[in-house]
């Protein structure tokens, strides 16, 4: 089975990632693969990811880092937008209450 055939068996969403990492993984020895799998199984994700980055060509590692940063920024921006929308709603409610009190005080 070729690498491309193996990648084709993965869920569609994982195929781009597999295409990125497959050339690197196929250069690993069986011992390296097993050591890496053991890191993941033990929950040592940071060390496993560090091994992946160390094995990647420099430009691929830089591109991967840029992608992670971009995704983090997008997630942070989306979270901020939700907070801003919630604050605006709360402020509008408070202003509505104060306006109602002010109008009641002047007899309107």
- Number of folding domains? 2
Please compute the radius of gyration using only Cα atoms. Answer: 26 Å
Distance between the termini: 81 Å
Overall spatial form = rod-shaped
Total beta strands: 0
Average pLDDT over all residues:
84
Tally of helical runs: 5
What proportion of the residues form beta strands (DSSP E)?
A: under 5%
Helix-strand sequence? HHHHH
Secondary structural class: mainly alpha
For the sheet with most strands, the description reads: none
- The helix content is over 70%
**Low-pLDDT residue spans:** none
Nutshell version of this structure?
This protein is mostly helical. The protein is built from 5 helices and no strands. It is rod-shaped and about 85 Å long.
Structure description:
The protein has five helices and no strands. Helix 3 packs antiparallel against helix 4. The longest helix has 48 residues, at 58-105. The model has no long low-confidence stretch (mean pLDDT 84). The N and C termini lie far apart (81 Å). The protein has two domains: 1-56, no CATH class; 59-108. Helices cover 81% and strands 0% of the residues. The protein is mostly helical and 108 residues long.
